[in-house]
């Protein structure tokens, strides 16, 4: 099957030109280049995807160097892996030397040697991701589909390429469910059976790799569908026994996406995911996924604030009281709690902090207090603090109000 016409229609002009340039340059070097992976799948599905992924029979780094010389691209080459990234102003292009992989043991990173396109496709996760389109001038646009990926796309099936696939790399369990939910496909019968059988193989996967797949899931339009399904399959349990993929998560993820100004959405999802965890559960989870320090802190703080929320459950708190309770938390943590709380009072206070209180500043600063004759030091600190509190609580409004209060506090009025 030849897809040359479809490529013309699918790719924006600048990418099409680039692909054609690369095709020519590869041929000049005596190499063959192919489009592979998600873009081929999405082109056949008619979904937009402009992540250009190329596999080269030959030397991808050499080809990338040459392409970089003739275009405005920044080159990032990994000689050892035979891969290169070309960074343009508003997109990137990945080139990889076709590789052959062998797994020393389940879950380990594979040993890699140069290979053919076929070798490169056989190591992939699912048939729908194991297709390529030739860019070689003599068969430009030809679909290479050794595992009948196109047929599986048409039948809405997710299929592994060999029975050992999930044991070689159990992250494919997470990836498979992600595609199943994204495209509303089904697992082919044997794939479904092996997926369930191999769930315990997730224990062989490093924290970084599991976290990476969760991050991938959190980029989906509706990650809660993937999380719920992983829960039903018993995958979440295997990663951490306290992880749930229930209706609560689905509801809160959905609400998080509707926020007008969400904090970093993936981080917010992480904080909501652990909202029902005990102190012990969360430590185990952070360690299992090797969560980086900054996100770990936000997730721990989310639970710490959760335990303090009852302090906010009073009908008439002063703005300054709300402020002092919340000022030590970053907006992400407060947002997670605002989404999670069942109390409308608490929700209102958390929102008040996020939208107003955290931005309240006094009109006068230290320099201006000096001009009023208040000298720098602990006393000035105290004056500034009182001014800020009065401003929060609406006891001072104008600059003149603040000056008056400052002078009376310093005994100079
Ligand atoms: P997405 O639209 O989710 O980005 P994608 O197909 O581009 O889909 P990537 O995670 O970007 O997925 O990976 C690119 C390609 O690399 C995949 O199409 C697949 O062929 C291959 N791949 C990625 N991860 C694995 C894995 N764990 N095992 C085998 N092949 C993989
Ligand atoms: Mg991709």
Secondary structure layout:
Elements lengths: L3 H7 L2 H16 L3 E5 L1 H8 L6 E6 L2 H10 L4 E5 L4 E5 L4 E6 L1 E4 L8 E4 L2 H6 L9 E3 L8 E2 L4 H6 L2 E2 L6 H4 L2 H13 L2 E2 L1 H9 L9 H11 L5 H11 L1 H5 L7 H12 L6 H9 L5 H10 L4 H16 L10 H8 L4 H10 L3 H12 L10 H6 L6 H15 L6 H11 L4
Parallel strand pairs: 2-5, 10-11
Antiparallel strand pairs: 1-2, 1-8, 3-4, 4-5, 6-7, 8-9
Helix pairs in contact: 8-10, 8-11, 11-13, 13-14, 14-18, 15-16, 16-18, 17-19, 18-19, 21-22
Bound molecules: adenosine-5'-triphosphate and magnesium ion.
Highlighted features:
52% helix; 413 residues; elongated; alpha+beta; seven-stranded mixed sheet; 11 strands; binds adenosine-5'-triphosphate; 22 helices; binds magnesium ion
Structure description:
The chain is α+β, with helices and mostly antiparallel strands. The chain is built from 22 helices and eleven strands. The chain has helices at about 5-10, 15-30, 40-45, 60-70, 115-120, 150-155, 165-170, 170-185, 190-195, 205-215, 225-235, 235-240, 245-260, 265-275, 280-290, 295-310, 320-325, 330-340, 345-355, 365-370, 380-390, 400-410, and strands at about 30-35, 50-55, 75-80, 85, 90-95, 100, 110-115, 130-135, 145, 155-160, 185. A hairpin with an 8-residue loop joins strand 8 (about 130-135) and strand 9. The radius of gyration is 28 Å and the shape is elongated. The structure holds adenosine-5'-triphosphate and magnesium ion.
